[in-house]
Amino acid sequence: MKRATSLLFLILFSTVQAQNSLPQDYFNNPLDIPIVLAGTFGELRSNHFHSGLDIKTQQREGLEVKASAPGYISRINIQHYGYGKALYIQHSNGYTTVYGHLQKLAPKIKEYLRKQQYATESYEIELFPEPGELAVEQGELIAFSGNTGGSGGPHLHFEIRDGSQRPMNAQMFGLEVPDSRSPLIEGVFAYPLGEDAHVNNSQERQKLSLIPLNDGTYTVNQVEACGEIGFGISTVDQLDGAYNHNGVFRIEASLNSDQIFEIDFDKFSFAETRYLNQLIDYEYYENNKKRVQKLFRTPNNPLSIYGKLSAEGKLNVKDSLDYQYTIRVTDFKGNEKLVRIPIKGQISDQIIKKENKKTDYLASASKGLSAKGEKIDVYIPGGSLYEDAYLDINFMGDTVQVHKDEIPVHKNFTIGFDVSKYRAEEREQLFIARISNYGRPSYSSTYKKGNRFTTGTRTFGKYTLVKDSIAPKVSPVNFYDGQWISSNETLKVKISDDLSGIDAFRATVNGKFILMEYEYKNNTLTHYFSDDVLTETENNLKVIVTDNVGNTTTYTAKFFTK
What we know:
- This protein is mainly beta and about 550 residues long.
- It has 5 helices and 47 strands.
- The strands form 9 sheets. Strands 15, 16, 17, 18, 19, 20, 21, 22, 23, 24, 25 and 26 form a 12-stranded mixed β-sheet that branches. Strands 1, 4, 6, 7, 8, 10, 11, 13 and 14 form a 9-stranded antiparallel β-sheet that branches. It has a 5-stranded antiparallel β-sheet with strand order 28-29-33-37-36, with no helix packed on it.
């Protein structure tokens, strides 16, 4: 008990020390409501770590977003996906704060943005104002919270980045986030790693049954193992005031009281974020939709989140010896959960062998691989895979199955199709699609050059040629043709495409470009009359929408305003 108390003190002390080296009273809460989180820093997401705090906005949009500290708007990034409408503030101490998924910007920033959007005739735009153009004071209104971009619900995405634009855990800067609950342990796994290693008479991954104890810790039934093994854990945190399953702050592992593994979610770089797929058990996630963090480092894994590592976090279990392996999971507030795993070294002579299926295609982590069918070819360049792997690649007419999405891919590989058998007009409507497990095709960026189509992708699976001959649909939302709409604040049009997807759109009134904001989650284009670009009573609207293979729909309507 004394040792456990000492360890907890050291953890808290090291966290406080790290915090004290950072400004603790410089950044304020960017909202006028207490911070309740929907997402924590470093949280495990698809192919990346979450780079900020997702602050709940009470299930609504339009809350005032304030500058967390004085500085100037250094970047404005407006996009359909990702952060949606986002602002970046550069501060005099070298840090940058980021505010994402915004509904709309404060008047002076909006005016600056609109001028540039109309000049370029584009909704999506990235701007870098000069230091003196858009200065802001701490607490100054800069925007209103929203749900734009890749947001799954109303909230504010807030980041603090260092001078190298590496995202840092904003809680380390003194922002108060109530959290009195310990992390949740959802599963613990054992992995035989060495060629002759085994766990519980098997060379396959083993899920261990968690046994809760009265003191709040967990144990498991004694693990019988031999050789080089490792462990993994599925764990989340729940903070006060929310039911979201969030990421934890620190995971440590010790063997016989000696620490052999540590990861800390305090800072990372965007260049390394995709290596998350080496931290997790990717195959298990794709098949079970639960992320298991491996408590050992695998090859080709440069993640900077690792702290102390002994033998890469792996255990060498010897016959007839006993071991005690302990996992400690901690959230930012120091709440913790422990799992103790007793291990007995024991050689088994009745081992369930791991299935190592060999195919005609051995993909090397360092060298390229080419595979060719009659009309389709696949090229996987060196550096695409983290580890060597045998791949199932099958060619079937206009379709190729490139393994299953159970192996993470770091760099794009290329799939090429010979389309010479199709007429020129047919080729215009063809695209390369990835087929989901439910049989639904989705557009994969298709590059066309003569009789050859190619796509670059980082996802294994089934790919085929699909024809899209149906143009997008366009329909009015808050008006009809010939209507007086003087009381409207907006002009809304719904656009959709059922196959290859929307590629581009353009709207004009009386031949003059008007800005329309695209919200892909509800397929809506919105023009705000407050832009003051419409000056006539009779207005002829034209909206041209094009899908990813070039099918185009032109919608026209007339409306009247005073």
